[in-house]
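Reply to dn_fold:

You asked what the input looked like. This is it:
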Amino acid sequence: MRMWCTRAERAQATWSASRPDAVSSQHFGRIRLRTGAICPLSRGARCDIQDRQLSFAFDIARMFAFLRGRLHCGYALPKRFPLPSLTMRFPPNALSALAALTVSLASISAVAQTSATKNPDWIRDQMDEDITPVPTGMGALFVPAMTDASLEPPVIVFSGGKRVAAGRTGERIVLPPGAYRIVVGQGKRDNRAAVEVRVTEGVTTPVEPFYGAVRISIADEDGKAVNETYVISTADGQKVYGPRDVSNDPEADLNTTWILSPGKYVVSLGSSPLARRNSMAFAVVSGATADYRIVVDDGDVVRTEFGEAEFEAKPSIWRLRWVLGGEGSGNIRENQFTGFNGTSLTVNAFSRLEGGIDTGPHLALLTFNVNQAFVGLDSEYGSDVPFRTLTNEAEAELLYTFRAGGILGPYVRGLARTGFAEDHYMPDGDVLMNTVDKNGRLIQRSSAGLGDRVRLTEAFSPLTFQEGAGLSLTLLDSRTFTLIGRGGVAARQARYDNARFVTGRNGQVVTLEELDDNAKYGGEITAVGGLRIGTSFTYETRFDSFIPSAQLIDDDKFRPIFRWDNTVALRVSRAASAVYNFSLRRDEVQLDDLQVSHGMAIRLQHVLF
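and this is what came back:
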């Protein structure tokens, strides 16, 4: 068989034969130069000379040969060693003598070579592309990459149980001659694939894959990548890899390539390797790469497919999410305007609806939240009635902001809050009820007894509106962290429809304050923060305030209206979380004390879309 030498002219020639340790740098002494010859190339053998000096020498020789004619490369196998022997011939003149001298000097520090006759073409191709030099007296290992080397775990080299080197797949790892143990993969060291190898001086030893590669991606039925968590385990459950979070965020890392020992495995949605549902079995074969796409719908596996491991994350400009849920909680509430004060056990229902457009610089978003809580015990001001309204809130916000560079820009927003159901006070016995105005003057006196329902607010009262405009600053907004601040001027209108709230009780006398409608102007400050660790832990905080102008300009006492709500959630299953809520507020009413509410809850929720 005869062939032209191609990239030997490119400063690389691959030496290969049947034995990986057959060729060493001492064989460079056989190199001779000549021209006009076409030599046989033994089948499956190629040349790979990677030393920079030798490559430079061949470039010079090639230049001289170009002046004289075409350069051909030939191989002759010596009788003792079935190895390729490079032979080149130039006319006996000054140019060829100079080229021969250059090659001879370069051969002194030539790098290691390798035989790769038994290795597939793709391994030899990877070795051709790697230009890592191997110093004289050293050898090298080459562990091929199954996919993108940047997505694969590092290769760890041990000698006598001690870590001596590390490198990437698809690159030479330079080592002194000797015996080594190669470990590659994820998870605990004992769970990774391993093999024993020997390094020979002056030789790059290719390591045929003793492992397989698996890529896993998760998508919805429309083929879009989704946020999910999965875990891999061996079929017997003895070895566990993960959990691993995947994301539809275009800034998130590409899906990991799992390097695993050959065998049978199971991949399960969630973080439990013992899951009986939403799991899939697969096999890993040495030297093979498998791509699996898991199609999910609302957290359940619909089907599995063979497909590309990565998705081009092209998030839609449309943002739409609706969550329905409920929770049982124990609460402590103090100085609340409406609802319940004291210690309570509650059953809550809530809805979170968010829709809008997010193009990056432009964000237009409508959110609508509803909270309703029932059942209370141990009321401070009323009877222990087994079924009554405790929390009665509805909030809608329309926000538009322009973010230059995704960071700073103007915003406008409108905010509305109300209680959509009536609120009542139910005394635990005969009481005298005195209603006063904001200055403490008596405007109404009445009486009530056990079982009476004294109306405090009408339906959709109080109803407040707040409109604001200013600057928005987005410091962080990623899958893990959120930190956004807004500040500007605002107007606030409150409508009470003669609503009252309980300010205190002295024996059988209950004092209530009646509220008047009002409109105020001033400034507003909003801060939104969040921390998310995978899908298991979430902390969300929001501070929203309004400062009347009279408190900023006039001599009025500084008492801004604000709400600071905090939620810490620890996910215990796909639909259930343990939640701690803390709220500190000063509402529209001028209460002397801050309104505090906090409690623990078990929350169940379902994402509609």
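Residues 1-118, 378-389 have pLDDT under 50 and may be disordered.
Hope that clears it up.
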